[in-house]
């Protein structure tokens, strides 16, 4: 971004409450050393081909420290949606406190990212969506007491197995009623459904994201109706491409809305 853009953005720092921004590495320092007094909603995309993060004067900066200092300086955040690239290995959120946080989305390509303790230290989180290759131990039945919206996949479902199993015993106002499932193939969907089945009667909203077109939509819908009989909202996301590594990929589906 040109300098005048940063100048304009800085002049809004005392009024902005929501911000969605995607930055290349050369702009990380300028942004992450800024303060937005009333920021409550942040969607931040931090990925770059530049592995070294430098200030305008050429000084090398630690991206982990920059990001954590920025988040520490914004304790009013209620919604934090953040995508981090490989430039953040070893990033730990353990000592970060965001007392008003209600929604957390973290997608991480970095190695050894620590987020588990941060989640446990924020029991007020209502919406949770985390994808990382870093190890996360399964949450206990009594943890995540406020979560009502959850994202799961075949890779992450086991993290929430006990929480989901205990969900039917929650008070109605704390039940999990919104679920997003990401599945590469139908077999992955079956694995996830086995974990989330206890949510069946209480689930109201479901988002289902497939990464291939191999699943038969009629079979999927019949399964969903059986597992979640009280759904009132359903979103299906199916890609337009076929599976290139399978010689007999199914033909494109014709969906009429």
Explain what the structure shows:
There is one protein chain. This protein has seven helices and eleven strands. It is globular. It is of the alpha/beta class and 257 residues long. It has helices spanning 3-11, 28-32, 63-72, 116-120, 161-166, 186-196, 217-227; strands at 18-23, 41-46, 53-54, 60-61, 79-84, 103-108, 127-131, 149-153, 178-183, 205-210, 233-237. β8, α5 and β9 (178-183) form a beta-alpha-beta unit. The chain starts with a helix and ends in a 20-residue tail after the last strand.
As a whole number of angstroms, the C-alpha radius of gyration is 20 Å
Helix share of residues? 10-25%
The helix count comes to 7
What's the SSE pattern?
HEHEEEHEEHEEHEHEHE
> How many E-type strands?
11
Strand order of the largest sheet: 1-2-5-6-7-8-9-10-11
Overall body shape: globular
How is this structure best summarized?
The protein is α/β, with parallel strands linked by helices and 257 residues long.
Question: How do the helices and strands line up, and which of them pair or pack?
Answer:
Layout: H1 3-11, E1 18-23, H2 28-32, E2 41-46, E3 53-54, E4 60-61, H3 63-72, E5 79-84, E6 103-108, H4 116-120, E7 127-131, E8 149-153, H5 161-166, E9 178-183, H6 186-196, E10 205-210, H7 217-227, E11 233-237
Parallel strand pairs: 1-2, 2-5, 5-6, 6-7, 7-8, 8-9, 9-10, 10-11
Antiparallel strand pairs: 3-4
